[in-house]
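Please review this one:
***
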Amino acid sequence: MCFGRCARCIGYKLLILALLSIVANILLYFPNGETRFASEHHLGKYVECLHGILGGGFLVLIPAAVFIRLHNDDCCGCFGREDCGKSCAMLSSVLAAFVGIFGSGYCIIISALGLSHGPYCFTHLERNWIYPFTESSGGYLFEYNKWSECQEPQNIVQWNVTLFSILLALGGIEFILCFIQIINGILGGLRGLCCSHEEV
């Protein structure tokens, strides 16, 4: 099994997922494509946590870059031995994977809290900006008839549910891929990076 190729494959997947996560988080800031709610500070507290930009985005881009470079990385060795350089590189990739685990975990937690808590919106009952679904502990997700309580921004419940669900899924996939790379990195470090005779 070629551990380096596996790492590079994971790296490219993480790169795509991280970019999608950043885009999804940016869209959360602009319900229905409108900028006024962000400028008027009428966004939910979990929208402003930057979980998709920082957590599922930049903190996952770091291991993605490390994994992509790993296969072609000509490491100068460790402990003065050139022959173990690639094994050391594989073991060091485990540290990068933990950064990705932390970032994706943050994205998962905030996305789950955002879904559970519900959106921040202007309601016709209270005539004020509130969190109308806080008490439901996520039960509102299946009570579609109550979604109309939020008057502004329009369709904010659908907007938030869709994007938080996407971020939750992206974070979950990133978490799994980083965990796989931890195992791959440990095995590759212990057994050495596989290399064909043509590459030598």
In short: The mean pLDDT is 85. Residues 156-191 form the longest helix (36 residues). Residues 145 and 157 are 11 Å apart (CA to CA). The radius of gyration is 21 Å.
